[in-house]
Amino acid sequence: MAAVIAHRGPDHQGVWVEGPAGLGYRRLAILDLSERGNQPMTSTDGRHVIVFNGEIYNFRELRAALEARGETFTTTGDTEVVLAAFRRDGAASFRALNGMFGLAIWDRTEERLVLARDRFGQKPVYLARTPRGIVFGSEIKSLLESGRTRRAIDWAGLHELCWFGNALGPRTLFDGIEKLEAGHHLTLDRHGSKSEAFWSIENVRPHTDPIDEATARVRSLLDGAVKRHLVSDVPVGVFLSGGIDSSAIALHAARHLGPKFATYSVGFDFDAGELPRARFVADRARSDHHEIVVRGANIADVVRTLVRHHDQPFGDAANIPLYLLAQQLGGALKVVLQGDGGDEIFAGYRRYNVLAFERVWRALATVTPLLAKLPEHRHRQRLERFLRAVGEPDAGRRMALLLTEESEHPSPVRLLGPAVREQMAGSNPFARYAELNERLAKLDPVQRMLHTDCSILLPDIFCEKVDRSTMARSLEVRLPFLDTELAEYVLGLPSHYKVHRLEKKWLLRRALRGTVPDEILDAPKRGFDVPYGSWLRGPLRPMLEDSLLHGRCAREGLVDVGACRNAIDEHVSGRLNHGFLLYKMLQFALWTEEYL
Q: Each residue of 219-263: pLDDT tens digit?
């Protein structure tokens, strides 16, 4: 059974492995899983073929262990190590991989296909099951190019988009196209297909180290994580926001790279953001520092371009500055480190503090009905949403409502057309949160929220944001806070090590004293807020009105034009803030024009 290289258009390389009729299809299409266009690799005995996308940071240690077991290698990279480990240990080998990956392995002898995706979903794997077999790839557009999938809306996915800005878990916005879940592998053979978890967050081992010992351990593990992520054949830079996480990465990188490595920061034309803090840290790191200012007048084309790269509506506008940073590099730098994952691992959001005093906040939520007597205003709108969220009796829904900016009063689906709302009536946008709440029920509320965010926010939003917006410009971004050794240790520590007396990231701050300046550690969290709400009142307003009021969504009844007009008018006037909802609807409208 021979593997051959073929092409489907200029941008979509594919690998076809011929399969016998007994498998239920005539050809199994392995569409390219590597944005870098790597060729498939065949094992030395000719039995296995792998297509691999990602980086394995502990491959040298794994290689040494395999050589001790008698393996020999003909290359110096990580792909051959992954393939050799699979030959020895099968799917159990994925548990030992410390890195980001999406991969496919074809076993010619057993006529078996295995797909796998890393723990936190840093690299994507999409698949569609068809009567002729299965088609998969690292981009949905590759599946569409295969001619084996259809372009139709998944209504449950759209329901989740309205609430959270993305489809969650295995779901996408395309009916019949799914994501392989993070930490899972899928096996397909003559007996059918089966998806299993090789790593699951509820099985993270608890740690009870004393606080001083845990602090020292975190300090060591973070330094080791940054060092591992710096291993590269090309120069490595750092995206530096000026917050705790990116500052920690930059200053640890300075230890291993020496002075004059490159750092990059972003600000906006009407708000410098954390550029002054980033300059301060860059000076301490003695890095070669660069800044980019994002200007709203240039945003409309970028928004449309990013819809094409995500292949789906994507509600997190933080992909815009990432894309522009990658674009500014112009290929001069191929690898950068970034601080995503620190907030979810170490408890960097306000909602973790809220849940640490859950009973107090739920008692305060009883005053919510009194807010109806106040004049309608965006500040009342925000307070009412928050109190309704903390007062929600169902724990799974409470976690979901604390995350989203939306509320059931009124529901975000009100901007969709009546026929669309009817299609979505049977779906539950909170189902993913309910499932995780049940799986993590033994944990305290803070720990349960942290583990839920690591299972939803990271794979479904933040990792996709990083991968799509930077790989669009051929830039590889690595996330040291998601290093396996560091993340698994911190996830297993008690929640009161992370949230302590209303101080977020308490343990991380302790571990970074003496490495990161106190001016950064003790500064209030500013966050990385992209001003899309302001853009929707200004440079994005023409595109917003054209797409929602006159475009395909309006003509085909996918949106309620009157409801959209009211929301736009309220937002533009500043009376109410509908920025998140309108941005999601704009993404949906642009996606329907581009893909449907």
A: 999 999 999 999 998 999 999 999 999 999 999 999 999 878 999
Q: Compute the chain's Rg from CA coordinates.
A: 24
For residue 516, tell me if it sits in a domain. yes
CA 392 to chain CA centroid, Å, is: 27
Written as one letter, the residue type at 455 is: S
Other C-beta atoms lying within 10 Å of the C-beta of residue 381: 18
DSSP 525: P
What's the confidence (pLDDT) of residue 16?
Answer: 39
Q: Evaluate whether residue 385 is within a structural domain.
A: no
**Structural domain boundaries, residue 30:** 3-199
Contacts of the segment 49-52: beta carbons below 8 A, 24+ positions apart: 49/3, 49/15, 49/17, 49/105, 49/106, 49/108, 50/79, 50/82, 50/83, 50/86, 50/103, 50/104, 50/105, 50/106, 51/15, 51/103, 51/104, 52/78, 52/79, 52/82, 52/83, 52/101, 52/102, 52/103
398 assigned to some structural domain: no
Beta strands in 57-96 (DSSP E): none
pLDDT confidence of 3, banded at 50, 70, 90? Answer: very low
Q: pLDDT digits over 464-492, tens only?
A: 999 999 999 999 999 999 999 999 999 99
Q: Which amino acid is located at 360 in the chain?
A: V
Q: Are residues 132 and 246 in the same domain?
A: no
- Residue 49 and residue 76 share a domain: yes
Rounded Cα gap, residues 473 and 426, in angstroms? 40
Domain CATH code at residue 465 = 3.40.50.620
Q: Record the tokens describing residue 419, joined without a space.
A: 């026929």
Q: How many CB atoms lie within 10 A of CB 362?
A: 16
User: What's the pLDDT at 587?
Assistant: 98
**DSSP of 537-550:** HTTTHHHHHIIIII
Question: Of 145, 169, 199, which residue is a domain's last?
Answer: 199
For residue 8, the domain's CATH number is: 3.60.20.10
Q: Alpha-carbon distance 590 to 303, whole Å?
A: 9
For residues 470 and 514, state if they share a domain: yes
φ/ψ (deg, to 5) at 238? -135, 135
Model-wide pTM > 0.85? yes
Distance CA(452)–CA(304), nearest Å, equals: 31
CA–CA dist 291, 286 (Å, integer):
15
Q: Examine the pLDDT at 317 and tell me if it is beyond 80.
A: yes
Percentage of the residues of the chain whose pLDDT score is greater than 90: 71
